[in-house]
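thread: overnight batch results

M.L. [08:02]
morning all. the overnight job finished for the chain we discussed friday. pasting input first so we're all looking at the same thing
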Amino acid sequence: MPKGRTFCAEKVRLEGEFLKAIHELIALHAQQTQAVIDEDPEFSRFDLLIHSAGEHKDRTKYILMAHIEAHGCGEA
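M.L. [08:03]
and the structure it wrote out:
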């Protein structure tokens, strides 16, 4: 099997972490959007959470990318 097509459990795990981080970020955006629609005057309480979730998403992405590069388990 070509190097780029081998199964890598760690890559799968890291992809799962990345997808989970994306879903968490999307959920926070949805909650804030709903708060705005509901005219909740404290909708900005989501700002820090969204910022932190965005940073977490970016970290997981870069960890995944570094793993793929170092391990050579990316898609061909």
